[in-house]
Backbone:
């Protein structure tokens, strides 16, 4: 089964959709925000050598970068050798992040189906078993409920497992462990145990993978108290979020997308993490705030090109943190543009968009000039037929129409 | 604990009562000594895919007296919890362990505090045997601040990290994969310790148990799965729930041992054997043949699916505390009166703990939001103004 997966995934990613082979940095144009500007919030930054630095005002800029946004891209004509950093695909970025963390902390281990000798069905764990051995990169039998439980049990003692669901949908079998044990143990034990586990895997609607392999589990998990959820969308934030998730003391669920694994980007050579609770400003604008995450970010950016040609100036924010929402960034944007469009891949009922609408309405209702619009996938099982599947998810044309409607 | 104070008063009285041999008066003191004693278990062990350990258990008077005291304490504690529940000071679910004390006490005698124990929701006595105090138990049951989980866990969520007691789990069977994860961590850190993952005869039919057992056997983990078979999964008798109620055999390729769970010494022997086995050969299953006097929980009278005769029959013939009492008396380790004094003392201890627990306050309203996330590394719930998410309580 894994072999078919890999073939489909690779072929699908390279096929017709133009968003996959884009250099995602082309759409990023906001400068880095300096780290120490935050008022009143004190937090610790873990540096690459393991030391913990509180309020790192005096740190050298090279050591640890934790800003939300990749640097402004230069013109594409610049030769690759003179640019800093190195270019890689998203799954390689994940692998790099995982490898660096495993080197840095001996307690990090990986568990999942075919992560070891096979190298991972999406090659995220490729080469790790050879490097770290069978006790740190563990091939499990097909038993999601129990190996997720085992990961959580190991995390209770202080190990830092990274549990991979070969497809997020399979983690439904581990829902009890994730909800009751992973999310709630810190609370029900009165703070005695922390569960520093990372649960990751690809989800989302792929290329004709069928209903059961195209699920969006973020909508099911979002109510579980005690967990954090993040969704990566570019190689830069994939590596950063993977590293931050592993270093976090809280259980983090990292949502990857089946169709984004072959995105290419240039990422910095030095050690960096992305803040788990922060949203990413993809494209600042004035007219409308578009909130999105994961694959829909690319559909939004494609629609943004059309919108710019039509004279609109959308502000695109990749919310990245699905739980908790970064209401600060979102709020500042709403206060500026007064119009919100949410573009997501979850289904309309009970999805991330539904929660986001509630959160924005509760907090920023006075700043809205129009009701929030939410474009989500249809409330249907994802069909196999390609034409039907295309209609199930939000397409760029719909986004353009929605913005036009919103900005009337 | 209070044994030394008891020894002072009792040894005086014992030497008064039995002036036969003043030379033996030291041995007769209630605190006991470490001189070895060999006792036979009530029934031999039945084994599956392994050699059963011997029926003769090495023990000593001190240990037997400790068993008696600890089990009497647990029994009293559970009965007191029953009364507190009926007085509506304990709400929700309350699953009592009386009748099964020998499993907790025997297991603890065979292992160290570095070995891990994880169990399901019938966890009050296991928590105490791992070093939890009565105050923590009663305060947690009543939802007070002094409870082991600060009042936020309740009856089914007792944990004690510093003595490797991992709880306290409400969902049937979910603790077994957690337990195998603990064993994995022990193997990973090369600790030379083992994990005892306890579950009931009802949970023995859960698929995740077999999944975890498969993985443990594959990876050679020092996991010991202990089935506390009290013959009823809530209201369903084991023969109605399991096609094969020989739970110790269900591991198939994993060896198993069936133990009389009402005999603390047999439990101790089995756990010692299992620990040695697990450290060398990987997982093993222990089936403790035990019985609970109360119903499944406080809302279950316990008599609709079994007869009162059955319950009183087991109480007459197999009660763990009575067995130890008879052993102590037959080996002349203490007098009837001394044992009764221990029971009185234990009763007082329980009453004192309850009084103290009642004085402990309810958790502060702000405690509602603590311990949801672990703080540090910049993890804070970001609210609309970048501060922590605040909620105003009515």
Residues:
């Amino acid at each position: 089964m894994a072999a078919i997966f890999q073939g489909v995934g690779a072929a699908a990613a390279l096929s017709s959709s133009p968003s996959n082979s884009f250099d995602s940095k082309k759409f990023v144009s906001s400068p880095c925000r300096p780290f120490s500007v935050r008022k009143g919030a004190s937090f610790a930054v873990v540096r690459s050598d393991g030391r913990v630095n509180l309020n790192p005002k005096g740190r050298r800029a090279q050591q640890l970068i934790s800003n939300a946004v990749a640097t402004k891209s230069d013109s594409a004509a610049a030769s690759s050798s003179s640019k800093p950093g190195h270019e890689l695909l998203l799954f390689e970025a994940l692998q790099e992040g995982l490898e660096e963390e495993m080197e840095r902390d001996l307690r990090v281990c990986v568990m999942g189906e075919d992560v070891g000798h096979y190298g991972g069905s999406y090659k995220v764990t490729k080469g790790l078993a050879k490097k770290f051995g069978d006790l740190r990169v563990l091939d499990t039998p097909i038993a999601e409920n129990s190996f997720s439980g085992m990961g959580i049990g190991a995390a209770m003692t202080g190990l830092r497992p990274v549990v991979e669901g070969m497809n997020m949908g399979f983690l439904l079998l581990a829902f009890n462990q994730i909800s009751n044990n992973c999310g709630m143990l810190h609370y029900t034990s009165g703070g005695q145990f922390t569960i520093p586990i990372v649960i990751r895997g690809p989800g989302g609607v792929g290329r004709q993978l069928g209903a059961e392999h195209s699920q969006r589990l973020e909508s099911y998990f979002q109510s579980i108290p005690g967990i954090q959820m993040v969704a990566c969308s570019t190689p830069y934030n994939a590596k950063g979020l993977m590293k931050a998730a592993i270093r976090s003391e809280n259980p983090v669920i990292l949502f990857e997308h089946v169709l984004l694994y072959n995105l290419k980007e240039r990422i910095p050579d030095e050690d960096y993490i992305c803040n788990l609770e922060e949203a990413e400003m993809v494209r600042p604008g004035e007219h409308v705030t578009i909130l999105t995450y994961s694959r829909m970010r690319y559909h939004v950016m494609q629609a943004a090109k059309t919108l710019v040609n039509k004279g609109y100036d959308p502000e695109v924010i990749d919310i990245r943190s699905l739980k908790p929402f970064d209401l600060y960034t979102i709020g500042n944007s709403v206060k500026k543009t007064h119009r919100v469009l949410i573009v997501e891949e979850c289904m309309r009922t009970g999805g991330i968009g539904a929660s986001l609408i509630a959160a924005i309405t509760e907090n920023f209702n006075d700043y809205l000039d129009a009701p929030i619009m939410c474009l989500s996938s249809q409330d249907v099982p994802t069909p196999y037929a390609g034409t039907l599947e295309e209609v199930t998810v939000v397409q760029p044309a719909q986004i353009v129409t929605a913005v036009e409607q919103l900005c009337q | 604990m209070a044994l030394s104070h008891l020894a002072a008063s009792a040894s005086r009285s014992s030497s008064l009562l039995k002036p036969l041999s003043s030379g033996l008066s030291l041995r007769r003191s209630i605190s006991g000594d470490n001189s070895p004693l060999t006792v036979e278990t009530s029934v031999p062990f039945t084994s599956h895919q392994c050699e059963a350990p011997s029926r003769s258990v090495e023990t000593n008077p001190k240990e037997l007296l400790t068993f008696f005291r600890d089990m009497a304490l647990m029994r009293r504690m559970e009965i007191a919890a029953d009364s507190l529940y009926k007085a509506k000071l304990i709400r929700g679910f309350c699953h009592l362990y009386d009748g099964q004390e020998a499993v907790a006490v025997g297991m603890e005698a065979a292992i160290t505090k570095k070995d891990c124990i994880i169990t399901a929701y019938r966890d009050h006595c296991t928590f105490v045997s791992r070093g939890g105090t009565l105050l923590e138990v009663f305060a947690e049951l009543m939802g007070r601040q002094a409870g082991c989980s600060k009042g936020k866990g309740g009856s089914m969520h007792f944990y004690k990290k510093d003595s490797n007691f991992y709880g306290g789990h409400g969902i049937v069977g979910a603790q077994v994969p957690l337990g195998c994860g603990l064993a994995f961590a022990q193997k990973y850190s090369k600790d030379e310790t083992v994990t005892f993952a306890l579950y009931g005869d009802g949970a023995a039919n859960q698929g995740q148990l077999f999944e975890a057992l498969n993985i443990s056997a594959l990876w050679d983990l020092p996991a010991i799965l202990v089935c506390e078979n009290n013959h009823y999964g809530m209201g369903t008798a084991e023969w109605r729930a399991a096609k094969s109620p020989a739970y110790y055999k269900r591991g198939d390729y994993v060896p198993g041992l069936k133990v009389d769970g009402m005999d603390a010494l047999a439990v101790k022997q089995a756990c010692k054997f299992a620990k040695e086995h697990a450290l060398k050969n990987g997982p093993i299953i222990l089936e403790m043949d035990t019985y609970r006097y109360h119903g499944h929980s406080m809302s279950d009278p316990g008599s609709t699916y079994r007869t009162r005769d059955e319950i009183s029959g087991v109480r007459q013939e197999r009660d763990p505390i009575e067995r130890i009492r008879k052993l102590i008396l037959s080996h002349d380790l203490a007098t009837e009166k001394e044992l009764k004094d221990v029971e009185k003392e234990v009763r007082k201890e329980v009453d004192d703990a309850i009084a103290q627990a009642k004085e402990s306050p309810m958790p502060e309203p702000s405690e509602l939001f603590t311990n949801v996330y672990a703080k540090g590394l910049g993890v804070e719930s970001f609210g609309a103004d970048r501060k922590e998410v605040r909620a105003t309580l009515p």
Q: What stands out?
A: The CA atoms of residues 131 and 163 of chain B lie 7 Å apart. The radius of gyration of chain B is 22 Å. Residues 61-86 of chain B form the longest helix (26 residues). Chain B touches chain A through 60 residues (CB under 8 Å).
